[in-house]
């Protein structure tokens, strides 16, 4: 299951990149002159922020989940109800 979730995450990042590139291409082809570079910087910066934020959130979320599991396991003495 986790293996498929990793593949799904990679596919989602790829689709997001394709969408971002499409927005930049539209701005460059159909926008006003001078807008192409501004839109490219803005859109790719947003993409990097979304991707990096998601990676950091997943990393720290995993740490927090591990700590919560440890705390709950210690509180119950390792026994489940």
Automatic annotation (TrEMBL):
This is Uncharacterized protein. It comes from Photorhabdus khanii NC19. The lineage of its organism: Bacteria, Pseudomonadati, Pseudomonadota, Gammaproteobacteria, Enterobacterales.
């Amino acid at each position: 299951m986790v293996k498929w979730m990793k593949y799904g995450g990679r596919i989602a990042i790829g689709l997001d990149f394709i969408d971002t590139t499409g927005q930049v291409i539209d701005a460059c082809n159909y926008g006003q002159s001078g807008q192409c570079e501004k839109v490219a910087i803005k859109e790719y910066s947003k993409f990097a922020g979304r991707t990096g934020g998601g990676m950091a959130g997943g990393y720290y979320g995993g740490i927090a989940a591990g700590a919560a599991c440890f705390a709950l396991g210690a509180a119950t003495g390792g026994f489940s109800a």
